[in-house]
Amino acid sequence: MTYPHTARSRARRIGAVVAGAAVFAGALTACSPESSDDGPVTITVWTWDQPGQGLEAAIPAFEDAHPDITVKVENVGNPAIWDKITTGMAAGGSGLADIMNIGVDYMGNYIETFPDGFANLSEMGADDLESDFPATLWGSAQDTSGNVYGIPYEVNTNVVFYREDLFEEAGIDMDSIATWDQLLDAGVTLKEKTGSYLFAMDKAASESDSANLWQILARLQGTFFFNKDGDIALSDTGSVAALDFLKRANDAGIVADIPGGWDNLMTQVKGEANVALLASASWMAGVFPDNAPDLAGKWAVRRPPAMVEGGYTAASAGGTFLSIAESSAHKDAAWEFVKFSMATLEGQELVYEGAGLFPSYSPMWSTDAFTAPNDYFDGELVNQLFVEALSEDTPPDYYTSDYAKALKAYTDAQTQVLLSGADPQEALDAAADLLAQQTGRDIAS
Question: Could you state, in order of their start, the residue ranges of all structural domains in the chain?
């Protein structure tokens, strides 16, 4: 899952962190003392700011029901948390927290590199919870044998936030736009009538999140960096079509050049960057009220247009998990907190109230509080829109352990296309060839 405000140089760090840890992987030994939860215990949780706020909100009720368990949430920060987790795993689990918040784009790397790093939650009863969570996200925390190593915290779908007031000023009906090509044409009209750019990109790829829009467009065509066999999909038809769209929009003069990162994203949210549209993830819905209260009723949200007529109008935007360290001396107590906070209505309502992140726990989706109109977005049933998108049968993302290398190869190609006018097919062919040399993977036919 992607948090632009916490993901500075995120993917570059994935490669560095996991590659460095691989040096130690051979020395990794299972460090799993028996859980000793007969008396009072304190369990720690490593996370970062926003998800940590949700977990903090659930602690009082949990501790009332479990008076012998004290929960301590530590805001380690993101991306600092990945260095800290990897260091602990490479040391056989030494120093790890009992519970760790894990991004979907890290989960596969950890399971593969440190097979004894996380507790096997299937052995603790996790399989009984499977039907209450999205299948694609649940599967991202499994090993090749189907064992579960994380319970989903939040789940995200890709959506489009847009300045309804600017589109109305330009005489454009967003409800009539069914494809991204139609949106491109609308963007030209928007720029002529209002002076606003349609969307922004980090054309020089100064931050790893510069690939976010391409990832959305690729997902809407059922492709990603890799396919289900682990082959490189960077130069397939859908991937090239996604980059070709970005080139055509850029050539039309409707793409603002804004560096990546949280602060620059906020200039768009606040209306300071003269940009009318943000293609992002559903978790962003909770960001607008806090950061742009004066624009309430002016921002609207919808599912993304299809890349081709009749194509996907939904795409996964990842998520996060709570995992338990195999080295924890209090796995039973940790499991109780994970179950309460992630897999009960009481716990989930508290977590949602505390952080506003879209819950993976599907029974939450039908509660009265969750389905209420969103005042900021002019009374829209925003959460219901997200539920409908999540209910669409869309392909999963295949990150693999070479995601960081793939992301770097892609962003270099994107920069060549947007700043130097390179041909998208040729740029992605070269990127795929480079990635094949670096990883030994085949290029998907």
Answer: 17-156+317-384, 157-315+397-439
